[in-house]
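step=predict obj=Polysaccharide biosynthesis/export family protein n=423
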Amino acid sequence: MTDQIASGRSVISLRKTYSLKVALLAAVTVLGTLPVQADEYHLGVMDKLKIRVAEWQTAEGAVRDWSVVSGEYTVGASGMVSIPFIGDLPAAGKTTNEMSEAIGVKMQTLFGLRDRPSASVELAQYRPVYLSGEIQKPGEYPYAPNLTVLKAVSLGGGLRRSESGQRFARDYINARGDSSVQVSERNRLLIRRARLQAEIAGRDKIELPKELKDAPDVAGLLESETALMVSRDKRQKRQLASLADLKSLLENEIEALAKKSETQNRQLDLVIEDRDKIEGLAEKGLALAARKLALEQRVAELQGAVLDIDTASLKAKQDVSKATQDDTNLRNDWDAQLAQDLQNTEAELDTLAIKLGTSRDLMTEALLQSAEAAQTKDNMSEAVISYSIVREKDGKAIEIAADENTPVQPGDVIKIEANVAMR
């Protein structure tokens, strides 16, 4: 069995122990995480996990990737996760960190490994939520972070239309849910636009839009966009500084080559002068031909050296010109990208304004329908909508009273009831 497992492993050998340990940590780092912190979230049936396992081998000084064990797995109805070559491991009620530890311990024990493998357990998909009762489309729905009862009702198509004229309630909740999502998206776009305007103007601080003065989530949005702006600014400055350093090095090289060329030219002039004298003496028989030939060769060598220096200087000047052009292109591309992002953001805001206006019109219409229904003589009763959540805790199902803003957790069952109250 060990040979079969080894065939699926890839061994990465590195030179230094420190680098190998860093590579091992990088190999088991979670590449993407869901908004709920893994340390606080307890797994349950139908949660999907992404597992990756690597082992640092002290004796070989290498990292072994257990690819046959790595993959995506679902917590089964028994609360167990079935992993090849490892078997079933309890998962329900555990955190991802506890699962990581359990996988490493089980593999070390099962395969008799000297070093315990490091396992990364990432929550790939939450278990679903369920809607029941007075809902247009009861059933199972995927869980999304920050899900509330109101948003869950919107997923199910809103409240069920009753024969007693409660259509307005469903329409109102649908429109209200859409409006809530659209307002949140609009706030995010407004902060993005403010950040882009600050970057274009060269400011180091984002000016808060007046539309968001009283927004409840504005502090978090502003902090997020400010951090993004600072990061982008640092990246551009690093790129520009690198180009400036390159230009400085090239200019120093050009200056050094110019001095070297001047020295070589002086030597060349002296050798040419000496050669001319020797030629005169040779014609009179007062100098040897070998001396003349040596001077000719020296002249040729110095001329070649001068040509090489001039060529290197020309190449350095071309590189300076290219670095200058790269600097200009970087600034132009940066400005063009900012302008394009601002234009796209403005277009998204315009589209969102139309959608938001439509949702508010639908909410107004639903309220008007409600008022008209209240004025009819036959409407002697009204429906009172109540919500509750059935949640599993410590292996037992408990029912919790809820309202539209109550947060929903993975695996919850949301019950919607319409109680008729006589006037």
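step=describe
Residues 130-161+381-420 form a domain with the Outer membrane lipoprotein wza fold like fold (CATH 3.10.560.10).
step=end
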